[in-house]
Amino acid sequence: MTENETTRQTEQPLQDWRLNGASSREARGIVDTMLDQMDVSPSYQRGDVWSMDQRIALVKSWLMGVPIPALILNNRDNPEWAATEGPVYGDGVHAETFQPIWALVDGKQRLETARLWFAGALAVPASWFDPEWIKYPCVTEDGLYVTHEGLTLAARRHIGHRFAFPVIEAKLPSLRAEAELYLLVNGGGTAQTEADMSNAARVAAEGK
Questions:
Q1: Nearest Cα to 114, choosing from 68, 157, 155, 153?
Q2: Into how many domains does the chain fold?
Q3: Region 133-139: what's the mean pLDDT?
Q4: Quick one: angle between helices 52-64 and 108-118, nearest 10?
Q5: pLDDT-based confidence at residue 191 (cuts at 50, 70, 90)
Q6: Residue 32 lies in a domain
Q7: What is the mean predicted confidence (pLDDT) over 113-118?
Q8: Is residue 121 part of a domain?
Q9: What is the pLDDT of residues 140-158, one digit of tens each?
Q10: Are the C-beta atoms of 42 and 103 separated by less than 8 Å?
């Protein structure tokens, strides 16, 4: 190794973080009940980077039953976190720093998209729905679109359970551990290039 390279060696054997298996939770429930108790922008997270096309594509995936990647949450209300970062007490916030007890380690763009959808701030093509489900469409350059609020009550109830996230919970001991998990989840594999995505889009459009 050169002088500037870092080692992969650790001082101690790797700790088993024992993340639990994914459980399915309705996206509306997470938006309504957990956001106030969740740090969605810890210091290792990136900002809001999804385009509108990407957010609309997530709604399309929900409607078509396409698997959605899991949200990964860290429950900071645990003894190891208290020993490293300080204790967490009631009302969902840290007693001294008033920071939320849950951290969104991965899935910020997906959760923000869900929040926008249920707030009526995201519109998708009305043609994706049964015409009887459309109550208040909006006119765009791409034809009629509709928000969550523009659907009938029956439609909102019908699709509510389909807008769900797999959720994986951890009890990591520190902010550094959260950042390491973020790196492991997002650093594997090779990012799709623009050429890769353009080729897939061509096949989706032409079938060859």
A1: 68
A2: 1
A3: 97
A4: 80
A5: confident
A6: yes
A7: 96
A8: no
A9: 999 999 999 999 999 999 8
A10: yes
Q: Report pTM.
A: 0.85
166 three-class SS = strand
Q: Strands across the sheet with 143-146, in order?
A: 124-125, 143-146, 138-140
Instruction: Specify the residue for token string 């849950």.
Output: 102
- Residue 17: inside a domain: no
- Within 13 Å and on the Cβ side, how many CA atoms surround 120? 8
**Buried-exposed string 155-165: b where 16+ CB fall within 10 A, e elsewhere:** bbeebeeebbb
Query: For residue 200, what pLDDT band results from cuts at 50, 70 and 90?
Result: confident
Give CA angle at 162 (158, 165), nearest 5°: 150
Q: Tokens representing 179?
A: 């950042």
Query: pLDDT confidence of 90, banded at 50, 70, 90?
Result: low
Alpha helix stretches (DSSP H) within the chain: 27-33, 52-64, 79-85, 108-118, 153-160, 175-187, 194-206
The residue range of the domain holding 79 is: 23-116+162-188
Residue 95 lies inside a defined structural domain of this protein: yes
Angle at 150 between CA 47 and CA 135, to 5 degrees: 165
- Contact call for residues 134 and 151 (beta carbons, < 8 A): yes
Record the tokens describing residue 81, joined without a space.
């976190």
Tokens of 109: 């763009």
Compute the radius of gyration of the chain from its Cα atoms: 20
